[in-house]
Amino acid sequence: MTSNTRVVVIGAGLAGVRLARRLGELGVPALCVGEEEHRPYNRVLLAEVLAGRYSPEVIALPAPAGLVRARVTGIDRAARAVTCADGTRIGYGTLVLATGSNPVLPPLRGLFTPDRVLPEGVHAFRTMDDCLGLSKAVRPGVRAVVIGGGLLGVSAARALARRGAQVVLAQQSERLMERHLDPDASRLVREHLTGLGVEVHTECRVRDVRCVGGAVRSVEMADGYALDADLVVLACGVRPRAGLAKEAGLAVHKGVLVDDELRTSDPHIRAVGDCAQHDGTVYGLAAPALEQADVLAELLAAEAGGSGVLGQAGDASARYRGTRALTRLTLAGQDCLDLAAFGETVPRPGDDVVRLADSTRGTYRKVVVRDDRLVGGVLVGELGTVGALARAWEGAEPLPSDGGPLLHLLTNDGGS
Ligand SMILES: Cc1cc2nc3c(=O)[nH]c(=O)nc-3n(C[C@H](O)[C@H](O)[C@H](O)COP(=O)(O)OP(=O)(O)OC[C@H]3O[C@@H](n4cnc5c(N)ncnc54)[C@H](O)[C@@H]3O)c2cc1C
Q1: Distance from CA of residue 38 to its chain's centroid?
Q2: Domain named NADH-rubredoxin oxidoreductase C-terminal: which ranges (predicted)?
Q3: Staple 15 to which of 98, 232, 307, 325, CB 3.0 to 4.6 Å?
Q4: Single pTM value for the model
Q5: What would the mean pLDDT of 240-244 be, rounded to a whole number?
Q6: Cα(274) to centroid of ligand 1, in Å?
Q7: Cα–Cα dist 376/367, whole Å
Q8: Dist. CA 161–CA 163, nearest whole Å
Q9: Distances (CA, A) of 165 to 183, 242, 332, 354, 415
């Protein structure tokens, strides 16, 4: 295949690898350029590696055929070529950005050493290298502070506690995972962490990172209170990695803007996964990234006129219309905590709410209904009904008006 028709994918994460493999199946070889040293892996399972439940090999993804290890540093749109850090140039017919996200580094005093690196003991939690670095540093009794109480911070705190660290979780807002959960479910997650020995501080803003000899020693709160720390984990959210696109002059808002065919403002460049912004939304979740990759594979295979090993040739009518993404978190192990949340979990005035709670078993189920439609729900500890509820939510069909089926949806464990 000449460089005029070649598909080049930047990024060998969940979306890039899925796309390259799917294209291979559809008879369109693609070159996937990824900067990470490790075999492609499932990022969603990094907390399980940190917790010591899985080895890195267990979370490896099947690598696509054309995988090159390099960091792309520039896009020459006029010449349709990308440049890599080692000086190589790679020509493309279609370029796909699957560059993922970067962790948000909060504006803390002392966060960077004079040569702009993180001090020893301070880690982001995004890559396998972050995970292995943390894993190496954690020992029973180590004092760890996790900054951020979203999905990432909760997973990291739990994993570190499981490895015997003394963990403090500092969350700026008033409750844990407030983007995904309602107050009751947040409270259950907090109780779960506390039960594992994690000290949870909410409405608590970290201001300062204190180091001695280039290594972290403590963190200081806005109210002046200082916590000793041998390890600090930054779990303050992510931002789409759109620098390459911006420098190349593509339209970028929060992420790289794409249409329903995952096309950027340059018709020869597409974008999928965490780096892409579709219809105003940057998802930052695995399911939309995979769905976008699947749609794009169909489109590119149809454009290439390929006839795949399975006799398929792509589907030119495939479109990405958005994902109604369900957030699911399993904190596995002995003290397992399963939770799932979708849509709007906090009702507006006038919404109907059905709630079932069992404080002995630590389970909680709630759904929010507006104008006979399921608009959101949250399940903690008891996920048997999640499949049926998610289907009712995704379908957005009106629910029968007598309320019976709703209760049935909440209690019928056979539906998933
Ligand atoms: C610890 C953790 C837990 C998570 N848990 C969940 C969860 O429970 N549920 C959920 O839905 N989502 C979860 N996520 C989010 C999920 O992992 C992402 O949404 C998903 O990985 C997005 O896939 P992606 O391919 O767009 O990006 P990524 O998987 O980040 O892959 C992007 C790849 O591109 C590479 N890259 C970037 N720029 C370049 C360049 N210039 N040259 C070469 N390579 C480059 C990066 O190094 C990276 O390997 C979690 C994330 C983390 C970090």
Answers
A1: 19
A2: 338-384
A3: 98
A4: 0.91
A5: 98
A6: 7
A7: 6
A8: 5
A9: 27, 35, 17, 39, 39
CA–CA separation, 196 and 364 (whole Å)? 19
Q: In angstroms, what is the span from residue 414 Cα to ligand 1's centroid? A: 33
CA nearest to 369, candidates 339, 400, 340: 400
Measure Cα distances from 81 to 3, 8, 10, 121, 276 in Å. 9, 9, 12, 39, 20
What are the Cα distances from residue 256, in Å, to 2, 93, 252, 333? Answer: 27, 19, 4, 38
Q: What is the pLDDT of residue 77?
A: 98
| DSSP secondary structure, 64-80, as one string | PSSEEE--EEEEETTTT
Residue 221: partners with Cβ closer than 8 Å, 6 or more residues away? 170, 204, 205, 206, 207, 227
Kindly state the DSSP code that residue 335 receives in the 8-state scheme. T
Ligand 1 near 290 CB (within 6 A): no
Length of the chain (residues) = 416
Domains of the chain, first to last: 7-102+239-304 (3.50.50.60), 122-236 (3.50.50.60), 336-415 (3.30.390.30)
Are 193 and 333 in contact by the 8 Å Cβ rule? The answer is no
Q: What pLDDT, in 10s, does the model give residues 354-372?
A: 888 887 877 889 999 888 8
Of 42, 48, 303, whose CA–CA distance to 156 is shortest? 48
What residue owns the CA closest to ligand 1's atom 7?
44
Ligand 1 pocket check for 121: Cβ under 6 Å: no
So what's the pLDDT on residue 414? 45
SS3 123: strand
Is 234 in a helix, a strand, or coil? Answer: strand
Direct distance between the N- and C-terminal alpha carbons of the chain, in angstroms, rounded to an integer: 45
* pLDDT 10s digits, 266-316: 999 999 999 999 999 999 999 999 999 999 999 999 998 755 555 567 899
CA–CA separation, 144 and 363 (whole Å): 29
Q: Which amino acid does the sequence have at 5?
A: T
CA 315 to chain centre: 28
* CB 284 near ligand 1, within 6 Å: yes
Say which residue the tokens 């850090």 belong to.
85
- Tokens at residue 102, please? 């970067």
133 close to ligand 1 (CB < 6 Angstrom): no
- Residue among 9, 32, 33, 43 to mutate when testing ligand 1 (max atoms within 8 A of CB): 43
Query: Shortest CA distance to 380 belongs to which of 404, 356, 408, 405?
Result: 356
